[in-house]
Amino acid sequence: MSDPLDKATSQAPATVGEGCLSRYDPDDLSPEDGTEFPGAAELWEQLREEPDEPKKPA
After folding, report:
1. Is the pLDDT of residue 24 over 60?
2. According to the model, what pLDDT value does residue 8 have?
């Protein structure tokens, strides 16, 4: 994606489902749509390791 303003005028990817179940069609997405996230697995593992309890203010 070179110029973000070019993206604003382009057509959105196709969707599947209706209403609250509507989502982008994964088969229609490409790296140009921002679907690449190489650090996703590492981020997921990091978030899973954090304790569920909120930190108490000092």
Report:
1. yes
2. 60
Q: Is the pTM of this model over 0.85?
A: no
CA 34 – CA 40 distance, rounded (Å): 13
Answer for the pair 16, 25: CB distance below 8 angstroms, yes or no.
yes
12 phi and psi angles, rounded to 5 deg: -70, 155
Terminal Cα distance for the chain, rounded: 43
Q: Would you place residue 16 in the very low, low, confident or very high pLDDT band (cuts 50, 70, 90)?
A: very high
Q: Which amino acid is at 28?
A: D
Strand pairing category for 23-24 and 15-16: antiparallel
Say how far apart CA 38 and CA 44 lie, in whole Å: 11
Q: Are 14 and 24 in contact (CB under 8 A)?
A: yes
